[in-house]
Amino acid sequence: MKGVLLVNMGGPESPEALKSFLSRMFRDPAILPYNRLVRTLLSYIISRARYKKSWKKYELIGGTPLVSATKRTTQALQSLLGNDYCVKYAFSYSDPDISDTLTRFRSLGIGVVHLLPLYPQSSLTTTGSVRADVSKAIGNDPFFQLIFTGEFFRHAGFTNFWVHQIREHLKFHGIENPTLVFSAHSIPAYHVLRGDTYPEAIVSSAAMIADQLGFHYEVAFQSGMKRGTWIGPDLKVHLKLMAAEQVDNLVLIPISFLHENLETMYDLDHELVPYAKDILGFKNVTRVQLPEADPLLVSLLADLVHQI
Fold first, then answer.
1. How many domains does the chain have?
2. What pLDDT digit, counting tens, does each position of 33-72 carry?
3. Shortest CA distance to 133 belongs to which of 94, 96, 98?
4. How many Cα neighbours within 13 Å face the side chain of 290?
5. Same structural domain, 133 and 34
6. Based on the domain organization, do 72 and 38 belong to the same domain?
C-alpha cells in the first residue's frame, strides 16, 4: 500500500487554537526570514496581539472552512483511489501536523508516501515551507520513500476545474461579458528577490483559464500585510483604477486557493466586494465560490498521484 499526504495551511477552531496557529505560522522561517530567537519573540508578540481581533473575523464567517474542506477532499480522494492507497491530511500550522502524520504512516508500515501540498502555484512561503517541514521530520530516514509534487497549475485538470467553476458561476448569476479579476494571496517582495516564481505562476494560471473562456481579465494580489513591501498590484488599489476606467461587471476569482478560507470569505466577501460596490460604485461584483470537495478537483489530485 502507498500513502498519499495532502498538506494544507490549516485553520483554528477556537481562540486558543488561533493563538497557537499564529504562533506556529510566525515561527516559520518561510514566513519571517529572521533567526530563530527573533522569530520566537515576534511570534509570541504577534500571536497574542492579533488573535482576539482575528478570531472575530472567523466568527463572522462561521469558523474555519478550510479544515472541513480538506477532510472532505481527503475522504473523496481515498474513495476514488481505492484500497491500494492510504490517504491522509496534515496542516502546517494546526493539528495534525506533518511530522505526526508521517509517524502514523510509519506505524501502518507505509514508507512510500506521495506528498501533495494543496498550493497550485508554488511559493517559498507555502510549498517551500512544506518541503522544509518534511525534511525536518524525516531527515535521512531510509524507511520513507517520499514523492513530492510541487506546483500543478499547468495541469489541464487545474484549468478545467476553474473554467467549470467560472462557467457555473456566470450561468447561476446570469452574467454576460464579465471582466474576470483573478486574485491571489500576496507574498513579501523579498521572496521574489530570492527566486520565488509565484507571481509568474499566478499570471500564467490566469492567462490559461481566461484563454479558454475568452473574456477580458485582470490579475491582482490580496491580503498582504501593512508592514514591508508585498507583491502587487494590490487588489484594492487595482479596483480603484478599474473604477476610474469605468470597467464593470466584475467576477472575482481566488485563483491561488482550492478551498474556502479567511482570505476568501472575509477579505474578499466581507471587505473587498462591499468596498467595490459601496465605495467605488461598481454595480455588478460577484465572487466565484469554492466547493468543499469538488469532483474535478479530486480527479485532478488523483491524476497527480497516478502520474508517478
1. 2
2. 888 899 999 899 999 998 999 999 999 999 999 999 999 9
3. 98
4. 26
5. yes
6. yes
- The percentage of residues in the chain with a pLDDT greater than 90, rounded to a whole number, is 91
> DSSP states of the chain as a string?
-EEEEEEE----SSHHHHHHHHHHHHH-TTTS-S-HHHHHHHHHHHHHHHHHHHHHHHHHTTS-HHHHHHHHHHHHHHHHH-TTEEEEEEESSSSSBHHHHHHHHHHTT--EEEEEES-SS--TTTHHHHHHHHHHHHTT-TT-EEEE----TTSHHHHHHHHHHHHHHHHHHT--SPEEEEEEE--BHHHHHTT--HHHHHHHHHHHHHHHHT--EEEEEE---SSS-B-S-BHHHHHHHHHHTT---EEEEETT-SS--HIIIIIIIIIIHHIIIIIS--S-EEE----SS-HHHHHHHHHHHHT-
**Domain holding 18: CATH number?**
3.40.50.1400
**Same structural domain, 118 and 165:** no
Q: Are 146 and 222 contained in the same domain?
A: no
- Residues 261 and 211 both lie in one domain: yes
Is the CB of residue 282 less than 8 Å from the CB of residue 250?
yes
Range of the domain at 240: 156-287
Please state whether beta strands 85-91 and 112-117 pair in parallel, antiparallel, or not at all (unpaired).
unpaired
In angstroms, the CA 243 to CA 256 distance is 24
Does residue 226 have a pLDDT over 80?
no
Q: Do 1 and 84 contact (CB within 8 A), yes or no?
A: yes
Give the count of beta carbons closer than 10 Å to the beta carbon of residue 279: 12
